Amino acid sequence: QVQLVESGGGLVQPGGSLRLSCVASGAVFSIKTMGWYRQAPGKQREFLATFRNDGTTHYADSVKGRFTISRDNAKNTVYLQMNSLKPEDTAVYFCNAYTGPEAALAASWGQGTQVTVSS
């Protein structure tokens, strides 16, 4: 099992930037992908970006060009650089990891970090 701890959230003005970090511990050798999701009040959890072990990345259309996911395997950490933030980006941001064999992937989640975009 993998444990995930996010950090880096906070209050930022529209147009500003934040970088979120997520450190994985435990069975990190079993991680296949790491990614980011968010959930705004009253809305479903939304996929943002993922970083696969082969180095490929995938983004939701809503953040493509503004958010960048990166990963430091030596530190077991995944980052989300968020630029040109908008009030609608306000949400709790969750780190995610899929582990195990491809036929039976298991999802692990962090506790979330609040991002508020407001003037």
Overall SS class: mainly beta
> Using only CA atoms, what is the Rg?
14 Å
Question: What order do the helices and strands follow?
Answer: EEEEEEEEEEE
Gap between N and C termini: 40 Å
> How many runs of DSSP E, i.e. beta strands?
11
* Share of residues in helices: under 10%
Largest sheet, strands/sense/barrel = 7 strands, mixed
β-strand percent reads over 45%
Point out poorly predicted stretches. Answer: none
Shape: globular
Round the mean pLDDT to the nearest integer and report it: 95
Helix segment tally:
0
Quick structural overview:
Helix content is 0%, strand content 56%.
Provide the descriptors you would attach to this structure in a database record:
4-stranded antiparallel β-sheet, 11 strands
Describe the structure.
The protein has 119 residues and is an all-beta fold. It is built from no helices and 11 strands. Strands 2, 4, 5, 6, 9, 10 and 11 form a 7-stranded mixed sheet that branches. A 4-stranded antiparallel sheet has the order 1-3-8-7, with no helix packed on it. The termini are far apart. The relative contact order is 0.32. The model has no long low-confidence stretch (mean pLDDT 95).
Give the helices and strands, then pairings.
Blueprint: E1 2-7, E2 10-12, E3 18-26, E4 31-39, E5 46-52, E6 57-59, E7 67-72, E8 77-82, E9 91-99, E10 106-109, E11 113-117
